[in-house]
Design goal:
- With about 400 residues, the protein is of the alpha/beta class.
- It has helices at about 5-20, 30-35, 45-60, 70-80, 145-150, 175-180, 190-195, 215-220, 235-240, 240-250, 260-265, 295, 300-320, 340-350, 375; strands at about 135, 155, 165, 185, 205, 225-230, 250-255, 275-280, 320-330, 355, 365, 370, 380-390.
- It has 3 domains: about 5-105; about 135-185, Alpha-Beta Plaits, CATH 3.30.70; about 195-390, Vaccinia Virus protein VP39 (Rossmann fold, 3-Layer(aba) Sandwich), CATH 3.40.50.150.
- The chain contains 15 helices and 13 strands.
- Strands 5, 6, 7, 8, 9, 10, 11, 12 and 13 form a 9-stranded mixed beta sheet that branches.
- α8 links the parallel β5 (about 205) and β6.
């Protein structure tokens, strides 16, 4: 493909991404893969070049662009050599003045008042930087010092004692250490949530929103003789955990829940858990550097819905904690409504519960919890708070 043809391909992919955002369809990564599945003539260099153009344009536009062409014109406005490719054979049509150009930005205007006050404007560029590939060592099987030597060019994560950091383009799914269950792909921020839980052998641990089980696996590795039950209402995501647990040699139970009957379906755990982890569904604003089009998918209505769901899950989790037990609440978000605001509301309703400091000397205090951000901590954005039932 010529440079002009690559640019035209990027415009076409961006049109599909914008339509997918509007219709709540698949993510940009999947769209890029699908696009080239039907274009076998494109070589690996072509695919990489088009993908880079697509994600550069997505990262540049805080608001959803009107079209792929407007997004690419905006990128070309910052990168003038791209302007010369408009009107070239197999490239985008020649520029006709005036044309709509996507405005640059990091955070959609309507979301800016929702940000935690800790996330100053100087940190916004870091929210869209390319993220590294972080691995969590399965400490039940090996030490980090043993495993890190198997990954060329790797380094230890600066905060988590379980983590290894690789470059953004690293592939590990075919690495012997991954296949043997010695490591899992997990951002350092997610690892810190597991560390905040401080799981111990012999404890009864409930992971209320386990998804595919990344944090359940981390807790099972840190406390191999704990009883861990992973639950979720998403069958497809939860069904991925048994194979992951088998590869990691971890004993983790699973239970599919049906909303709004969670309390009934968890009646045997009512007041029974030493530890409940509520890693709640959220805006995903902490993962924009991995999923930059997530800014375009979020709407005021969707944010309100996830905030209400978070309240619901905190209430369920609180019922499961035994007297003297603890609950850890986490969201991959940098928005106050989902983080510090949720914990303030919970403690107003349950004033006897005790807020505890997390055992992590990193991040920044944000209300009754701790916030980790890409700009300050080089992790995904995470809010985590730890509460104890009296």
């Amino acid at each position: 493909m010529t440079p002009a043809a690559r640019l035209q391909a990027a415009v076409e992919v961006l049109d599909e991404v914008i339509a997918s955002v509007r219709d709540d369809g698949p993510p940009a990564d999947a769209i890029v893969t699908r696009y080239f599945k039907h274009r076998r003539y494109a070589g690996s260099k072509d695919r990489r070049a088009v993908r880079e153009l697509v994600f550069r344009a997505i990262r540049r536009s805080g608001e959803r662009p009107a079209s792929g062409r407007s997004a690419m014109l905006g990128l070309a406005d910052d990168d003038p050599p791209l302007l010369d490719l408009f009107g070239e054979p197999r490239g985008p049509e020649a520029i006709q003045e005036p044309e709509g150009i996507a405005e640059p930005g990091y955070v959609p205007a309507w979301l800016q008042p929702e940000l935690s006050p800790l996330v100053a404007e100087t940190e916004w560029p870091a929210l869209l930087e390319r993220a590294p590939v972080d691995l969590r060592v399965n400490v039940a099987r090996a030490s980090r010092d043993e495993v890190i030597r198997e990954f060329s060019g790797s380094e230890a994560t600066p905060i988590s004692p379980w983590g290894i950091r690789l470059s953004p383009d690293s592939r590990v799914d075919d690495h012997p250490a991954f296949e043997a269950g010695a490591v899992e792909v997990q951002d350092e921020g997610s690892q810190l949530v597991g560390l905040a839980c401080e799981p111990s052998d012999g404890e009864q641990i409930l992971d209320l929103c386990a998804g595919a089980g990344g944090k359940s696996l981390a807790m099972a590795a840190a406390a191999p003789r704990a009883t861990v039950l992973a639950t979720d209402t998403n069958r497809a995501r939860l069904s991925r955990l048994p194979a992951r647990a088998e590869r990691a040699c971890a004993s983790i139970g699973t239970r599919l829940l049906n909303s709004p009957r969670e309390l009934e379906e968890l009646s045997d755990w009512n007041g029974f858990a030493d530890l409940v982890l509520v890693d709640a569904p959220c805006s995903g604003s902490g993962t924009w550097r991995r999923n930059p089009e997530g800014r375009w998918r979020l709407t005021p209505d969707r944010l309100e819905r996830v905030a209400l769901l978070q309240q619901h899950l905190l209430e369920i989790g609180a019922e499961m904690v035994k007297p003297g037990g603890r609950m850890v609440y986490a969201v991959c978000s940098i928005l106050s409504r989902e983080g510090a605001g949720q914990i303030d509301r919970f403690l107003q309703d349950r004033s006897s519960w005790i807020s505890e400091e997390t055992p992590i000397a990193a991040g920044r205090l944000d209300g009754k919890g701790r916030l980790f951000t890409p700009g300050h901590d080089r992790t995904d954005g995470f809010f985590v708070a730890r509460l104890r039932r009296p």
